[in-house]
Amino acid sequence: MKTVIICLLISVHVVSCTHKEENNNSPIEDSKSGKRCYNRAMDFYVMYQQSKSAYELDSALIYTDSTIYYRRNWAQAYYFKHCILILQHKYPDALSILDTARKIEHNDITYFYNKGLLFEKMGIQDWSINCLGKAKELATQDVDKKPNDIEKSTLLMVILLSQRDSIGYEKEYNRISELQPAKTELKLFYKTYEKYLPSIRTQMFLDFMLTLQTVQSNQIK
Questions:
Q1: How many helices (H) and strands (E) in the chain?
Q2: Residue at 13 is within a domain
Q3: Three-class HEC string of 150-194
């Protein structure tokens, strides 16, 4: 009974927040509503990580769809939906959403990175390797153009980690640390990771942070 009531409440909220064509909302109002829906989607996603309940994941998807309704040109919402669809094993739908995000954001590095991870989930290793290789190539070009840009460097390091290239990762980490010693903090890496790769928020991120801490500990020694 409790589950039914909660589902009804969600349905009422989503209907009230996704069918307002007649209200002629302003772009500012739509942006605020989209942000609220996105925050709720994230709340349910966090709960899902703890409970592994399909209900929480379905709820996260509902609110993500509401976010997209309000903010159709916000690529991060599409990347987040892509993440949820992967967890639901809806791989063709996840690929489609990823293509939509690419058209909006025009960020081929993020696109190929996430596509590589998706193919890995699908067990298509050759395609995964090719996509991750393309992401690395583009990210390396970005770093070569702006070698002092710590966000571009961080993005490259994340890709190197996904390729299990710990040597390449440590080399790039040491390089950017020498150039920007005051900025190589866990908080900044977290911020950059969240900004560019919102679809990978669980184990790989924890592995990433653990590797970073290990590298820093070794440097202190």
A1: 11, 0
A2: yes
A3: HHHHHHHHHHHHHCCCHHHHHHHHHHHHHHCCCCCCHHHHHHHHH
Q: Is the pTM of this model over 0.85?
A: no
Decide if 182 is inside a domain.
yes
Report the alpha-carbon distance of residue 116 to residue 158 in Å, rounded. Answer: 13
Q: Tokens 């920007």 map to which residue?
A: 180
CATH number at residue 11: 1.25.40
Distance between start and end Cα atoms, the chain = 58
Element (H, E) at 103: helix 91-105
- Chunk the chain into consecutive blocks of 10 residues (it has 221) and report each block's average pLDDT, rounded to whole numbers: 39 43 61 88 86 92 94 87 89 92 87 89 92 95 90 84 82 79 56 53 48 48 42
Rounded Cα–Cα distance for residues 114 and 134 (Å): 11
DSSP state of 202: S
